[in-house]
Specification:
It is a single chain. This protein is mainly alpha-helical and 131 residues long. The protein has one domain. The chain has 7 helices and 4 strands. A hairpin with a 5-residue loop joins strand 3 and strand 4. It is globular. The relative contact order is 0.20.
Length: 131
């Protein structure tokens, strides 16, 4: 598994957000978690279960809240990480939560229809990342 540590944490997060083009913390965290798991890359961010809301990362949440100005000013980005963010931008907030939850805990906290949509999106994302 490749590790995303060549850049500082703000750089990694900034690159991802530049591609993702959303700044809602819950969406960013769920999308980053999914991208990390599907791409085979790992970062030093930790994630916690949020049941039917996907995952949470207090560290990413803090970086987004307390370093928003630094993120806006940061110019150095990784195209590879930005591209992962862009791929995740295709999912809406609910789909991000469902797919993150499916990866983290299987169908445990999902209704059958949510699980079905999450599996479909997960398959699409997996195929897109392999291409």
């Amino acid at each position: 598994m490749a590790v995303i540590v060549e850049m500082d944490k703000l750089g990694v997060l900034n690159s991802f957000i530049k591609g993702f083009k959303r700044d809602n913390p819950a969406d960013v965290i769920n999308a980053f978690f999914i991208a990390e798991k599907l791409s085979g890359k790992s970062s030093s961010f930790t994630f916690q279960n949020r049941d039917n809301s996907g995952v949470d990362s207090p560290e990413i949440r803090r970086l987004l809240f307390f370093n928003s100005k630094a993120l806006e000013r940061k110019r150095e980005i990784s195209k590879e990480i930005s591209d992962l963010g862009h791929r995740m931008s295709k999912l809406d907030s609910n789909e991000l939560m469902w797919v993150a939850q499916l990866i983290r805990n299987g169908e445990t906290h999902l209704f059958p229809e949510e699980a079905k949509k999450a599996k479909k999106r997960l398959e699409e994302l997996s195929d897109a990342l392999k291409a």
